[in-house]
Records
---
Amino acid sequence: MTERTIIRLGPRHREAAIATLAAAFQSDPAVSWIIPNEAERARRLPRMFAWLWDDHQRHGIALGTPGCEAVTLWRLPGKVHHHDPLWPPEIMRLLGIFGRRILRASTVGDAIGAHLAKGEDWYYLRYAGVQPDCQGQGLGGLTIRAGLAEAAAAGKPALLETATESNVGIYLRLGFAVHEEWDVPAKGGPHFWSMSRPV
């Protein structure tokens, strides 16, 4: 039975959290557009989420179940729009993650940045994932509510983007509202819903 307590995830959870997020995003429309080949996507996603995990340990928080069946990565107020400088080592790391798909990854990232609500005074839910064999148990909603509770305690609103239409209803039930719909400006680029939740 999956433990339903939500905790702050740290270094000892790294590998399990990366595995959960990589599995959860294997069919994500935006990731699938960036890396169209399924086998290549399965190979590259753990590298991508290792990079994102490390980023959020520096500039945000990770919340989830103790066994990492559900994981969320949040940027905190003051860090919503932050990007580490693209020094040569960081560029090489990104090339190792995305390979020849790096231009598509950059196109999606730039589009998200262009539509991301202005200002830093938010809790920003960047990624939320549940292990495929644990979906449908309410773990995703439980984990997101824990982050929203932190935002409410701090008196801050929350925001997110999703490219998965079936997620929109879930977020609506969690108190978010759609404030913009948009497409990545490229051939076949994914459609996104930008959503926010007031204090």
---
Amino acid sequence: MAYFSENPSPTRDSSTGGWQQGTLLDVTICDLNHNGEGVGRWDGRVVFVPETVVGDRIQARLTHVKPNMAHAKLQTLLEPSPHRIRPRCIVADKCGGCQWQHIDYALQQETKRNHVIQSLERLGGFEQPPVAPMLPLAGFPDAANADLHYRNKATYPISRSATGQLQVGYYRKGSHQLVNLNQCPIQDERLDPLLAAVKQDIQQRGWSVYNETQHRGILRHLGLRIGRRTGEMLLTLVATQERIAGLAEQAAEWGDRHPQLVGVALNINSRRTNAIFGSETHLIHGRDYLLEDFAGLSFRVHPTTFFQVFTEQAEALLMAILEQLQLTGTEIVVDAYAGIGTLTLPIAQRVKRAIALEVQPEAADQARLNAQLNHLENVTVHTGTVEALLPTLDLVPDLVLLDPPRKGCDAAVLETLRQQCPARIVYVSCNPATLARDLKRLCEDGLYTLTHVQPADFFPQTTHVECAAFLTYNDSHDQPAP
């Protein structure tokens, strides 16, 4: 039970329900929210405390108080939870890249599944939603550590310290100050030597580094990618301009010293923005793509291409989708938000025809190229927004795949689907809140039934959760007249 410790009679403030900023509380953490913060209760209100674990009994100081809830900072760990573990990263207490290094992986998975269930219940209005257990990480080369070294991509901000030392890493929690890294325990460990070497070479070259406050300087970010199955690597520098003295020479040296580095690219982003990449990318050395094997197919992945960062787990979710669908080979499938064809092409092998819709011209071109690379002649790729393209199709597909960005589907997409009524819809989502919102609209009036939800962890040590939701059209549904 939560109770006051050092301040049993704090000054009351009626505007905040009676308690003031700075008050010390003893709280037991009973849950974790979608931001990764511990959730406790005191005097009928919710208290959010970062860096805590379910089962922790803590002393926390209130930092921000509202009538029905408050935020607090961990002061003292009075009694640690049995789910609290020692972080396996030496800068986990500083770096903002991971939120849950201090939580055992079993609780991470349980919490993520619960977040999916709660979103579907509270935001979607689904009673007892059919959410399966989390997709396991078993079957990887080192199953005991499959929750580490999984990322096939890392994009690091670049800065200089007050003494002029080059810094590459992630931002400290709640700030724009860098935590300097030579390795990262969640990225593919084969990238670590390249990261350390590139940092040293940039330092020796004395290249100008971007200052976001003054909007001056050249180098902004360092991007690294690796094909998990092929081992091929790409290096991308993001800069404010194309002219960097000695870059071509240095890129060739990197290629000579690191045989798995197949390409070095320069992306230009001169805007005053938090976006990492600009629209212009130049090849400096080698080739502008790496090859990756995914679901038995070969994919070209470019420097700015979207490709799921956990290759093995993305493939495992794809296999789970195929198991649920039990495709017969006669289906016509539309893959909305298709990207470079990561879902389209493996499914195209198992259906009569696959139609991909993709808004980004570069990604659409890559999807076409990847289809050709794998000799798939039943794939058609259309370039444009899903809301514009979907109503123009001269057919009603048997299956529609939705894999939108975090903001979910445009309302017009949902309305088109409600009019077309494909027999089945699979909605892949990285945001349980927008998933629940969109599923609620699709299932309104009994038009569709939510039959299965498969959550999967694409981002261990963080709060993010991916899932695939399966909808079936109700043949007996009587649609109201328009």
---
Amino acid sequence: MTSLTLKWVAVISMLIDHIGVALVPSGTPTYFVCRAIGRLAFPLFAYLIAEGYFYTKNYKWYIGRLLIFAFISEIPFDLLRHGDFPVWNNQNVLLTFVIALAALYFFDRFAVADNRLPALLTLLIAALAAQLFNADYGAFGILLVFVFYFHRGRPRTMVMWYSVIVIVFAALNAYAALPYINNVIQSLISGFALFALIPIIIYCKNRKKGYAAPSWKYFFYVFYPAHMMLLFILARM
């Protein structure tokens, strides 16, 4: 298992998820299957963001690249998810990752200086910012990136904390969705994110990058807004 393989698994599961959102009637068995498969995507991307931060040689360009594509992706994201633009109550997931990367940068600097309280406040501020900006996955997304980064090299504690966060998140969403059964089912489906641990644990055994031409790095960035716009057009047709 390589990081390139993780990217492909994440991209394919995201595509299946968004096909379910755009082209499959809500509440049908096929719809729920698509959404369940799609729960693998975000944790895998969150893990890759944490790995990317650890390995990057140019942090400014890494976060800058994400920020650029966050702006580019907002139009197709709003159109696919809400059928309108602009929509201010839900921003695309790349903004979540931008906030997480900024938080990791400051967290590291405080942690190196042994300033534990400012380091903890950095995490809390990032989680609040993701909620206030209505970034996709919100505080949950920030916590996952931090769990993957902070417990890097400690797979058992990573698995434990990841599992706790996913289960609590699914339970809280299911409770908030009561008494609407379809919404409750969809909330509980978020628990399928636990299966993302399988490829992550396999990858952790060797941490191979996998070969890809330099241009492929940008393919994964471009694919995010491009596939959403294509699915929006297909849905309208």
